[in-house]
């Protein structure tokens, strides 16, 4: 628990300079589950996500491409509880009006912003749907999105070019453009789009070190009282509270690390 991860991290700029220095001395163990059997005991519940839900109904109605990739069950799992509160959604990659309209109906109080390199996508604006035309690999364009939308986004979905470089850059530029408990989703990571080395996922995996940040001199036995970090903590240490990885899709949660833990004990 008290392992310090700082100093072993490779920065965004190092990644793009091609720096191949060893990133970590921590040796990871690969589980081989020696006592596992191929016959699992059936659970008293179904696969964690109910398939008969509002989002799957809207997926059937609008037929966005993400329905055909079986992603909607994961979206339902992460979005069902915040559906009515969400005010601003950004999806990079528009292509048709299908997805924008699905989100428009699913988030009844939100404006749905699309961003696409194809100028024809401007035609899909209407009602609570707005579209910005530009390249997600362009820092200026990504920067301009927040001011163009008039505020930070509660949800950002990257379903754009699916190029590793774009996925990593857009995340680096746009994750801070989330509201303080926003969610960033990256679709089509890994083999789905030919990234067989899982470069994007390998970069996202490193966020676990931010989530688990531990101040150097903090006593491990006081873990239940840790409510703030020391000055050495990075922006990412303070602002990333969780990540969920599914097959070809990842969700990263912004929050107040470690203060969001509702069960923190108070020191008397
Ligand atoms: C998979 S489609 C989006 C599908 C849509 N989100 C849905 O669920 O129905 C990908 C879109 O990304 C757009 N795109 C490709 N490269 C891009 C880039 N560099 N910046 C922004 N959009 C890009 C394409 O024009 C295309 O419309």
Q: What do these coordinates show?
A:
By secondary structure, the protein is of the alpha/beta class. The protein has ten helices and seven strands. β1, α5 and β2 (111-116) form a beta-alpha-beta unit. The chain binds S-adenosylmethionine. S-adenosylmethionine (SAM) is lined by residues 64-66, 91-96, 98-99, 115-118, 135-137, 159-161, 166.
What's the gyration radius in Å?
Answer: 20 Å
Query: What would CATH call the architecture of the domain at 45-205?
Result: 3-Layer(aba) Sandwich
* Quantity of strands, as a count: 7
Unreliable residue runs: 1-8
What's the quick description here?
This protein has a domain at 45-205: Rossmann fold. The chain is built from ten helices and seven strands.
Fold topology:
Elements: H1 12-17, H2 54-62, H3 65-68, H4 72-79, E1 88-92, H5 98-106, E2 111-116, E3 129-133, H6 139-149, E4 153-158, H7 164-174, E5 178-187, H8 199-205, H9 207-211, H10 235-239, E6 240-246, E7 249-254
Parallel strand pairs: 1-2, 1-4, 2-3, 4-5
Antiparallel strand pairs: 5-7, 6-7
The chain binds S-adenosylmethionine.
Residues 64-66, 91-96, 98-99, 115-118, 135-137, 159-161, 166 line the site of S-adenosylmethionine.
């Amino acid at each position: 628990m008290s392992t310090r991860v700082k100093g072993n991290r490779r920065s965004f700029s190092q990644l793009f300079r091609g720096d191949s220095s060893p990133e970590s001395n921590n040796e990871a163990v690969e589980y081989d589950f020696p006592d596992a059997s191929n016959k699992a005991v059936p659970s008293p519940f179904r696969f964690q996500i109910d398939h008969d839900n509002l989002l799957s109904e809207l997926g059937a109605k609008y037929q966005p491409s993400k329905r055909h990739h079986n992603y909607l069950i994961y979206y339902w799992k992460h979005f069902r509880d915040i559906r009515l509160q969400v005010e601003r959604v950004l999806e990079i990659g528009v292509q048709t009006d299908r997805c924008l309209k699905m989100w428009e109906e699913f988030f009844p109080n939100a404006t749905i912003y699309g961003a696409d390199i194809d100028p024809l996508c401007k035609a899909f604006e209407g009602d609570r749907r707005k579209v910005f035309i530009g390249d997600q690999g362009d820092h200026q364009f990504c920067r301009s999105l927040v001011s163009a939308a008039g505020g930070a986004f509660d949800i950002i979905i990257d379903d754009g070019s699916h190029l590793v470089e774009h996925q990593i850059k857009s995340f680096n530029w746009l994750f801070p453009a989330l509201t303080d408990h926003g969610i960033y989703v990256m679709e089509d990571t890994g083999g789905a789009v030919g990234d067989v080395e899982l470069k994007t996922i390998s970069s996202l995996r490193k966020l676990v070190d931010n989530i688990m940040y531990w101040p150097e001199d903090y006593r491990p036995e006081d873990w239940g009282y840790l409510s703030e970090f020391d000055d050495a903590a990075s922006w990412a240490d303070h602002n990333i509270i969780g990540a969920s990885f599914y097959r070809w899709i990842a969700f990263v949660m912004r929050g107040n690390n470690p203060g969001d833990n509702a069960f923190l004990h108070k020191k008397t």
